[in-house]
Structures are given as C-alpha cells and as structure tokens.
Design brief:
Radius of gyration: 18 Å
CATH architecture: Alpha Horseshoe
CATH class: Mainly Alpha
Number of strands: 0
Helix content: over 70%
C-alpha cells in the first residue's frame, strides 16, 4: 500500500524543499530591509547575531578570513545537536556565514537579486546573480541562489551545475546537497536522490524536509527491492 501513492503525495516533500529554498532567497532581502542600506546584509552586524545566539566570538574580518574554520565548527555542532531548537539556531548561524561576502558590491547585487526574485522577476534576478558569480566565483551563495532560480525555471542541468560548484566550495552545504536530491528525483534517479537526502541528514539531522524526502523515497526505492 505504501508504494501506491498519488503523484501529489510523492511531490509533497519536494514542494516543501522548494519552498524552503525560496525562503533562503527571500531572507537576503529581509536582511537588507533590516539594515536599511539596500544591501544583502552588513558584515558588521551578522557576526554579532551569531555571537549572541551561540556564544561565538566573531568579528567581521575574521568571519570572512576564517570562513572555512568557522563553518567547520558550526557543521560539527549541528551534526551533534541534541535538540531541534539547538539545530535551528546553528542553521541560522550557518546561513549567516554563507551569506557573508565581505564586499559591498556583492551585497548590493544579492539584495537586488532577492528583491527581483520576490517580485517574480526571475530574469532580472538571474542576470544579477550572473554578475555575482562572475565577480566573486569563490562566493558560494552566488551559485547557490542562482541554482534556486534555475530550478524554478526547470533548467535542471544548469541548477545541478551550479549546485556542484557550491559543493566544490563547501562540501557540507546541506541546502545544495538537498537541491541536488530534488533534481535527481526529476531525472528519476531515485537511489541517488535518496543518498543525497541521507547525506543531508548526516550533516543536519533535524532537517524536516530531508527527513520527509528520505522517508518517502526509502519506501519507494527500498520497498521495490523486497
């Protein structure tokens, strides 16, 4: 009976994922409004938010310079989180570090891309993110946010290419891994998609969307083997 799901039921976890990815895009614009500068965010304030939530002693310069070390620490703490509340605080801190660019130009472009996205102007949003990836190819969130738009446009090949670039820069970027899982589902690569969702859960054990996707696919993939 578990295998006899409607198409709507099978798509539900994926729709949750897409909604979550879109929220991360919108968060850039929210940060800009809070800063009141029209930029993606002020690198001078994000470390303070992280410090207040998690007891980290971060300054703006160190956030950019030691991004890899800081993220590694946060990923390890997320993997070992003992509650959903703790995990949510860690995810919030991680997303702040992801967005830290250290460049006013990149912040402006990211903020404008977010506004365009929220206004459903995907063409303009993509053009702005094209500029971000060209100017700052080592900035993973430019690729990550562009992949969201490509996914919305059903350009799955381009989205996969951008997500692979994100993972080249940050192998534990769980949003990118989950995005790959969704694309693999589109290509009917269910076993590979299941592997991706399980990989997400090793990094972020409290991810509701990854848990839902993993449960749905495990019934389909592993149930078929019985």
């Amino acid at each position: 009976m578990a295998l006899m799901m409607s198409k709507k039921d099978r798509l539900r976890p994926k729709l949750v994922l897409i909604a979550g990815l879109c929220l991360t895009m919108g968060a850039v614009g929210v940060q800009a409004q809070e800063q009141g500068k029209g930029t993606a965010f002020s690198t001078g304030e994000r470390p303070i938010l992280v410090q207040g939530a998690l007891g980290l002693n971060l300054d703006p310069d160190r956030t950019i310079k030691d991004r890899g070390i800081i993220l590694s620490n946060l990923y390890e703490r997320l993997q070992a989180a003992d509650s959903k509340e703790t995990a949510e605080r860690l995810v919030s801190a991680i997303e702040k570090i992801w967005l830290a660019s250290g460049s006013d130009t990149i912040d402006v472009l990211m903020g404008r891309a977010s506004t365009a996205f929220e206004n459903e102007n995907l063409k303009l949003a993509k053009e702005l993110l094209d500029s971000v990836t060209e100017i700052a190819p080592e900035y993973s969130e430019g690729w990550s946010k562009r992949a969201i738009i490509e996914f919305r446009n059903k350009d799955y090949v381009a989205a996969m290419r951008d997500l692979e670039k994100v993972l080249e820069l940050d192998p534990r970027h769980f949003r990118a891994i989950q995005g790959l899982g969704a694309i693999l589902e589109e290509f009917d690569k269910k076993e590979k998609a299941l592997e991706a969702y399980r990989r997400v859960l090793k990094i972020h054990p409290f991810s509701d969307s990854a848990q839902n996707s993993e449960q749905e696919l495990s019934r389909e993939v592993e149930g078929q083997r019985i």
